[in-house]
Amino acid sequence: MILSRVADALYWMGRYLERSENITRLLMVTEEMASEVVGLDENLARAEWHDLQTIFPSPDGQADSSHDLATLAHDSLAALSVDPRHPYSVLFSLKKARDNARTVREALTIEVFVNLNETYRELEAYHGHRVADQPAFRDALAATHRGILSTVGAIEQTLARDPGWLFLELGGSLERVYRTAVVLRTKLPALSTPQQEVDLPLYYSRWRSLLRGLSSLENYRRVHGARLESADALQFLIFDPHAPRSLRFGTAAVKDLLEQISGASELSLPARVIGKLASELAYQGEDVLLDGRCLPFLDHVLGELARTHETLSATYFGT
Amino acid sequence: MDWAAASSGYDEVFEIGGRPRAHYASLISILDSFTAEDVERRERLQKLALMNQGITFTVYGEQEGLERIFPFDFVPRIIPAAEWKTIQDGLVQRITTLNLFLQDVYHDQRCLKDGIIPPELVLSRKEFKRELLGLTPPRKIFTHVVGTDLIRSETGDYLVLEDNCRCPSGVSYVLENRTLLNRVFPEFFASYPVRPIKEYPRLLLDTLLFVAPRPSQSPVVVVLSPGIHNSAYFEHSFLAREMGVPLVEGRDLLVEGNHVFMRRTHGKRQIDVIYRRIDDDFLDPLTFKRGSLLGVPGLINVYREGNVALANAPGAGVADDKAVYAFMPELIKYYLSEDPLLAQVPTYVGFRQDDFRYMTEHLDELVVKTTGDAGGYGMLMGPVSTASERERYLATMKQDPGNYIAQRLVHFSSHPTHIEGRFEPRRIDLRPFILYGDRIRVLPGGLTRVALRGGSFVVNSSQGGGSKDTWVLAPREA
Predict the structure, then answer these.
(1) Whether residues B110 and B174 fall in one domain
(2) Structural domain of residue B358, as residue ranges?
(3) pTM greater than the 0.90 cutoff
(4) Chain B interface includes A70 (CB < 8 A)
């Protein structure tokens, strides 16, 4: 049993830490994909950046699409990595994770705080420099990504599995599954249109990029081999029971945590909300993957995840 | 390496003539064996460690949320066992007196009736809380944690500069400085019997548990902080972590049925002892400052009923008032029938008409302070001020003479400090920490603050000060 305020801060620390990892990864994957295809199909490269802006929207709205591609890429990179005012920049998320960590340092370990603080400070030092050439920028993002992963490692290695940890993990898990749903919801409409005219290699590289963006490409290959079928990939990202970023796995993880927090007696409201969604994902027929049914289903998943967040905030944080 | 001795005041390290004092000889020879590059490299490591661990404080009046590291100088300050004995005995005597004084002014007021200190002076202090008259805190302890500031006179005697009986801060830096120095210059420790200080959090917890109203029922202790924007937030969090107790803010607490509880994810839990790092005025909007959002409505009532202990006790601030300070030697004699073991700086009290006249006529020779402020805010350094600064200050002084005291500028001691590749003398003070539980304990060490600007007398962290590790040596075995 911990202070509601501490639980609240740990939950948000978990969410922002996970979010910073997600943004970093998607930024690296998008940048690589866009620069790979730009010579072949400039519109595709442009669409990749626009998708990323939809997934991580700026309060100022979408960047002007009349910009040339180089400017669009540069601006998106700069905004989503080190713009301290962009609510979905890596820097902003790391700062929020660190601010929350600072308010509950007594609930963390020195290893967790030092790793998080160092990662934030290194990226912050990068802010203000102009986004240099691409390789330099990739290096900076890769370093940040490593820093975030070491922080996650420090959490795994040093934190006691007490109620505070449960809330930290809950924030991370909910953010992770929510992000997978948002990415699928954003990318799917363009991916599922009939592709007769489209160059097949490009089509596959978009799916590959989607899987990589959800760090699932290698996991997918272990299950389905190198053959990339869109139906298999979608099935994998939604229903795979073992892949940490599938909707089914992520929802089950949130459910487990909420059940532990709820305790042995009657289940709390958020535990019931997520439990229902988890069983849908476990028992749902794969017919939801059929054209026309998948997007409404994703909307339903997003809605229930949002409701989980709202009910758990009300139940445990009094907010 | 290059060493310079102090040009005025006592030099902690070098005798007149330039020979190092006996207890510094080994340290100097170790330091002399380093090259400038070694030192520079280690200093870089040390700064990085501070930043990465987030050992920072917040500066008021600048951009919100601005964090700074508290500069650390790696040349340790060394206090031999015999010197420490004097300091320790003097502090125990002083804290005993401060407590007796507080118990007295909130009850019989004998010292006022006997004319030891003018009643109007005590009763007019902002920190004297009329609401608490007749109230005795658990175990009659008002000042559980005190930080007393000491300086050394031109002849090397330790002088008390002020007592801090409210929420003295700095002990986290005392502990962190030791860790940091040991990490960066482990060689220093090999030839000195440095007394350990790391048990402070345990001693603090024992001190707090000692005053718990329900001693038999594994009492719940918390640290109450104003929150992350407070300049000492790092310390609040540090102490909570080191003691293994919750760090709470006012909004985490609630009063119900004359008990204090904290709001938790699964229901509330009763609290027995609050180590509060919030000023009296903000503790309880129902008793003190209305509209304070930092405190807990109804807290003082629970305290009055004896259902919660507050450390330090509300109202204790009147004992560290700078005007009350002037009467401490008389108060020690009055309560203990002893002579003070530690001298203090002669003080003009604006409350007395004669003193005030003297102050106004000699502003350029005096250091003038407001009685209730801390942190070097609201003070005038006469000897280094300009005529127009003095004029402006005088105008404010005249509006409330009782709110000011003045002292001659003491050229207090200097200690070699690493400044841009050289060891230069910089002025230092010392804040030992004293705990009052089942008995009075003085932590063998303290916060040595250093004025990093050459020639400066201001050691406050908010005004360009830094700190040093402070070594108290164990007595050599006979």
Answers:
(1) yes
(2) 346-409
(3) no
(4) no
**Chain A, nearest residue to B240 by Cα:** A106
Half-sphere exposure (Cβ direction) of B271: Cα atoms closer than 13 Å:
32
**How many domains, chain B?**
2
The answer to whether residue A160 neighbours chain B at the CB level (below 8 Å) is no
Locus of tokens 């080190």: A82
Determine contact, residues B255/B299, Cβ cutoff 8 Å: yes
Cross-chain residue pair B52–A118, CB shorter than 8 Å = yes
Q: Do residue A107 and residue A226 come from a single domain?
A: no
Interchain CB contact of A258 with B (< 8 Å): no
pLDDT of A63 reads: 60
- Which residue among B377, B409, B441 closes a domain? B409
Chain B residue numbers touching A261 (CB-CB < 8 A): 265
Q: What is the pLDDT of residue B82?
A: 95
The domain boundary, picked from B374, B409, B444, lies at B409
| Residue A126 counted as domain residue | yes
Tokens representing residue A178 in the block? 């929510």
More confident residue, A265 or B309: B309
Do A111 and A227 share a domain, yes or no? Answer: no
Chain A nearest C-alpha distance from B226 (Å)? 11
Q: Which residue has the tokens 């979408």?
A: A62
Cα nearest neighbour of B234 on chain A:
A102
Contacts of A117 in chain B (CB under 8 A): 51-54
pLDDT at residue B64 is higher than 50: no
Which residues in B lie closer than 8 A to residue A167 (C-beta atoms)?
265
Q: Among A106, A126, A159, identify where a domain stops.
A: A159
Place of tokens 């005392």: B174
Q: What's the mean per-residue pLDDT of chain B?
A: 91
pLDDT at residue A223 greater than cutoff 60: yes
Of A3, A121, A167, the CB nearest to B51: A121
Q: Assess if residue A233 is contained within a domain.
A: yes
Asked if B224 is an interface residue toward chain A (Cβ–Cβ < 8 A), one would say: no
Average pLDDT over all residues of chain A: 90
Same domain for B387 and B244: no
Residues A142 and A233 in one domain: no
* In-domain check, residue A164: no
Both B377 and B414 in one domain: the answer is: no
Percent of chain B exceeding pLDDT 90 equals 74
Chain B partners within 8 Å of A2 (Cβ) = 246, 264-265
Does B176 contact chain A (CB < 8 Å)?
no
Same domain, A136 and A226: no
Closest CA to B277 of B297, B247, B318: B247
Between positions 16 and 55 of A, the ones with CB within 8 A of B are none
B362 and B338 in a common domain: no
Distances (CA, A) of A32 to A45, A138, A211, B223: 10, 9, 14, 49
Three-state SS across B393-428? HHHHHHHCHHHEEEEECCCCCEEEEEECCEEEEEEE
Tell me the average pLDDT across B30-51. 88
CA distance A211 to A33: 12
CA A112, CA A157: separation in Å to the nearest integer?
Answer: 9
Helix A134-158 × helix A110-126 angle, to 10°: 170
Using the Cβ of B248 and the Cβ atoms of chain A, whether some distance falls under 8 Å is answered with yes
CATH of the domain at B352: 3.30.1490.270
- Nearest chain A CA: its distance from B269 CA (Å): 9
Q: Is the pLDDT of residue A286 over 80?
A: no
Q: Does B182 touch chain A (CB under 8 A)?
A: no
Is residue B106 located within the same domain as residue B249?
yes
What's the confidence (pLDDT) of residue B478?
47
Residues of B in contact with A114 (CB under 8 A): 52-54
**Structural domain boundaries, residue A79:** 1-159
Given a contact cutoff of 8 angstroms between Cβ atoms, the answer to whether B353 and B404 are in contact is no
High-pLDDT (> 70) share of chain A, %: 94
| B467 to chain A, closest Cα gap in Å | 22
Residue located via tokens 């790696």: B74
